Every structure is written in structure tokens, then in C-alpha cells.
Amino acid sequence: MIVRNILSHSLKRRLIHTNSCLNQSPTIFYNLSYSELFTHESMNNEGEIMKLNNDEIYSIDTGKFTGRSPKDKWIVKNINSESEKNIWWGDVNQPLSSEIFDTLYEKAKHHFDSLDNYYVYDGYCGSNPKSQKKVRFIHELAWQQHFVKNMFIESEKQTTIENFNPDFTIMNACSIINEEWKQHNLNSEVAIAFNIEKKLGIILGTWYGGENKKGMFSLMNYWLPLNNIMSMHCSANIGEDGDTALFFGLSGTGKTTLSVDSKRQLIGDDEHGWDDDGIFNLEGGCYAKTINLSEKNEPFIYKAIRKNALLENVSQENQVPDFYNTSKTENGRVSYPIDHIDTYYQPQIGDHPKNIIFLTCDAFGVLPPLSKLNSGQAMYYFLNGYTAKVAGTERGINGVEATFSSCFGEAFLTLHPLHYAELFQKKIDKHQSNIYLVNTGWTRGSYGNGTRISIQDTRNCIHSIFSGEIESTELKEDKIFGLKFPVELSTVSKEICNPIETWDNKEEYYKTSLKLAEMFHENYKKYISPNFTDYSQYGPKIWKGGWTR
Questions:
Q1: Does residue 253 sit in the same domain as residue 163?
Q2: Residue 515 lies in a domain
Q3: Whether residue 505 sits in one domain with residue 402
Q4: Does residue 236 sit in the same domain as residue 220?
Q5: For residues 146 and 168, what is the distance between their CA atoms, to the nearest angstrom?
Q6: How many CA atoms lie within 13 A of 33 on its CB side?
Q7: What is residue 226's three-state secondary structure?
Q8: Number of folded domains in the chain?
Q9: In this structure, what CATH number is given to the domain that contains residue 490?
Q10: Same structural domain for residues 134 and 255?
Q11: Is the Cβ–Cβ distance between 462 and 454 less than 8 Å?
Q12: Short-list 96, 75, 329, 68, CA closest to 214
């Protein structure tokens, strides 16, 4: 079988095409150029062409799956293996038997062998050669190879590719489903499964492009920390003086937007490692949300949507992308090579971070737009990984809902959160990184009554970090959360710095603050362990009779 050959050997030709009298084997298109991919996408009618920035951009629709399927992600629990011992088993990393995985693998392999053609991409995950992983993707659609070509790192040396032996292979058979999912005790006909020992992953039933990149990120979250390298769901940029900054944050907090800055160079927008040498990007591209995207508010990302970019689930008007139309999804996306950002930094490696910024979209409207954290608070807020969701962002959400995601990326953690926290603690203590909490959510009230903090106000807060202004300004401590925030900044109005001052109803502010504080308190209980420092004291202020005021 030709798929088996691809999985077990290096590919030495750009195109493999085998024929027999009785049966014609698939044509395999290997590491196509952007122009070749555009031709294949158009020829296969995989999507449509849109026009922006004087360029034609290919756009695809992933159907009912416009985001990840976390309940359908599985990892093989190989008995007595290293992964069985190390993996954080549970809702995030659901165990799968090797027998069921093999059944799914045979289903995917048979599917590819039955196709007229398919696509193979070889690339790299990790910009630091010391810990870099070679990854092979097998896709049935040209746009999927386009996506991973945008997102992963390509070799500059063809000889390297010609002798490519992957560390891991992902087979994406998106158009077939697992009809026996109930018999297999799975959650749906969709399956995203990884066998670490076999170095093989399978995607069935979902077209969403993000499953490819997040699958590999979950694997890097396994390999790197076991080698004492911190893996992080964060963006990173670097200043003129070589000072590196990290931006942690969940989807919708502004991680991608805020790391792209005219005054700094972009290292990467989503996934990074932190080793003894410093910070390094895991990817070769960016994957940005497009909702309400405008040239005025996000000029660098807007201009990055040009030839070779790939739009995903974006509506159009007369062939022009309509980023304000969310009829398809709130999670419209665009992928593009990182060099589409004019201020990107090559070689995507930076020094140990001087400043680390936790981004939270607080829809309750009670957290300051900027707070400086001590080391204990840094660990408390890192483990909680707080943000909030509002009505319309996901099914079933009608008001404001607090979301806690360990290490600002719980869905991608392969090891226990305390493993990453311990590494993070050692890193920030050793390198004396400054830690800040930045609220990109609401002010003047909660969602529905208040207003969202403007991107410009948030940028001004962040620039006060980089300029050093926050280190020389007066700080005031919040009575409930214990957060120290600047009384005044030169580029931000005095009123907005202190959230209570923006609320007309002060009693409602305290009531809402206490509600959120209790959520923090309850969520943190699961991280209290006899083998790990308890950072409860650095959370909201409580006493035996109740909350302080």
C-alpha cells in the first residue's frame, strides 16, 4: 500500500505517480508551491476566490465545524508506556485503546488508497534546531496542504527535505466519519486521535484547519516539558533593545492583535517554547481571528491578508471579505506566513522575556485594565488562566460566563497543569521577568451595560510597560483582588485605570466583584497539592467569616 510506504520511508521525489494494469494508485502531490496549490484549489473547486489588498486570496468553508472539537480528541493509552505514565488523563486527554486506534488508522489508510490523488507536506515544528520536530501531514485537499504550509516551518535546503524522516505523521481524512463511534465508546463520528509511541495521528470527520496545528501543539506540550523546556500558548515580540515580551491569553483576548506592534518585531503569534537559550516560535505562520477586522484598528494583520494567505469561514460581499458578517461563525480565521507581517523577526528566536503579559477579557468589568503582579500572584493567575465568554460566542451562553483554562491553554496541555506551573515558576524566578495582568474586556459596567475597553487604550497600557512608565508611577491596591494598578498613566485617562470609578452603581460593582472572586476561589482549589506551593493567599482576599471589603 502506498500510504504505508509514505508513513515508513522518506519521500525523495516531488511527485509520485504509480500505475498498474489492474489498478491505478493515487497521485501524490508533495510539498507544492503556493502557485501550484492555488491552481489545485481552484481546479478542485475547494472554495472561492476573494479580493483584498489588490490580491486574490483563496477562501474555504469548513462546514458545520468552524472550531475545534475538544470532546473528540483522544490519546492512545499504551499500557506500561512512558506516555501512559506521563499524560494527564481525563477530559482533556481522553484515553483510547490501541485496538480502536488501529481500526481508525486502517479506515483512514484505506480511504487515502482509494483516492485519485492526495497531498503530502513535510515541515518542521519549532524554530530552535535543538528541540525541533519533523512533521509530515497527509491531506486529501489542496487547501489543507496550503494551511500547514502557512503554519509550519519549511526547510531552506531541498536536500534536507529529500532525506526527510518524520518524527510524527498526521493523516487528515476529513471527508470520512467513524460510523462505529458508539461501539468504540467515542463521543461522536468525529475522531482526532494520537498514538505517541507509534508517532502517528489521525483526523476524521472535521474540516477545521486548526485541528492540524493544535494537534501538533498538544504533542509539543508533551515532548518539550519532559526535556525541561517550557511550552506556552502565547505570542511573543521583541523591542529595539532586544527585550522580549510574551502575551498569554485565550481566544478573543487580543493575543494576536496586541503582539503585532509598529514599535516592535513579531516573533510569533500563538505557540512558543522557553529553553535555556531563550524564547523560540514553534510555528512559521499566523492564524488570526477575522471578526470585526479593520485596517484602522489592526493594520498589520489586515495588510497580511494578501497573496498566499488562506481565509477560513469568512463571508463575502461582491468577492470582498466581509469581516463584520458573522453569519457563518464568530470564529472566522485567516492563516498566512509570518513574513506577511512587515515587522516579523527572523530567526523567530528571542532572549529570556523581560516582560510577561497575561491577557484576560473580563466581561464582568471589575478587573483593572493594567495590573502589576508579584511572583505569587503571577503563579495564581497563570494556573487559573481566566477570561470570560459572552452571549453569542458559543451555543448555550446567554449572559456572561467565566472561563478558567489552566496555563491559558488547558485544552492543549498533555501533562498535568502543575508540571507546566513548576517549570514556569523556575523560569520567571531565574530570569526575574516582570508579570502583568491586562484586561481587554469591559469597563463602566459588565457586558450588556458597560463598554469594551478600546484597543488603543489597551495598547497604551502595554506601551507603558515597555517604556517603563508603570515602574515609576503610583500604584493602588484593589480591595478585593489585591491587584496593584497605576493610579494614572500619561496616555490613559485616570478614570479608566481604576474600574470602580467607571461604575455608576458602586454597590453593583462590589457585588459583581465578589461573584467573580468566589469563582476564582473555587476554581483554584483543584491546584492545591501537598507536592506544590499553595498560591491561594495571592488570590482574592478572604477571611473566615466571608469576603473582606
A1: no
A2: yes
A3: yes
A4: no
A5: 19
A6: 3
A7: helix
A8: 2
A9: 3.90.228.20
A10: no
A11: no
A12: 68
* Per-residue cell: 354: 523581560
Whether residue 216 is found in the same domain as residue 243: no
- Measured distance CA(342)–CA(408) in Å, rounded: 27
Distances (CA, A) of 216 to 2, 221, 409: 24, 9, 14
Nine-digit cell at 46? 475547494
Domain range for 419 is: 230-261+351-547
Same domain, 119 and 245: no
| Domain end position, chosen among 203, 226, 249 | 226
Long-range CB contacts (within 8 A, 24+) of 378-382:
378/428, 378/435, 379/421, 379/424, 379/425, 379/533, 379/535, 379/538, 380/524, 380/535, 380/536, 380/538, 380/539, 381/437, 382/248, 382/358, 382/407, 382/408, 382/421, 382/424
Do 400 and 448 sit in the same domain of this protein? yes
| pLDDT tens, per residue, the chain with 549 residues | 556 566 654 444 333 333 333 356 899 999 999 999 999 999 999 999 999 999 999 999 999 999 999 999 999 999 999 999 999 999 999 999 999 999 999 999 999 999 999 999 999 999 999 999 999 999 999 999 999 999 999 987 666 677 899 999 999 999 999 999 999 999 999 999 999 999 999 999 999 999 999 999 999 999 999 999 999 999 999 999 999 999 999 988 999 999 999 999 999 999 999 999 999 999 999 999 999 999 998 999 999 999 999 999 999 999 999 999 999 998 999 999 999 999 999 999 999 999 999 999 999 999 999 999 999 999 999 999 999 876 444 444 455 688 999 999 999 999 999 999 999 999 999 999 999 999 999 999 999 899 999 999 999 999 999 999 999 999 999 989 999 999 999 998 888 899 999 999 999 999 999 999 999 999 999 999 998 999 999 999 864 445 554
Strand, coil or helix: what is 98? helix
Q: Which residues are known to be catalytic?
A: 68, 214, 233, 251, 255-256, 270, 333
Query: Of how many residues is the chain composed?
Result: 549
Question: Would you state the cell numbers that stand for residue 387, as one nine-digit string?
Answer: 477570561
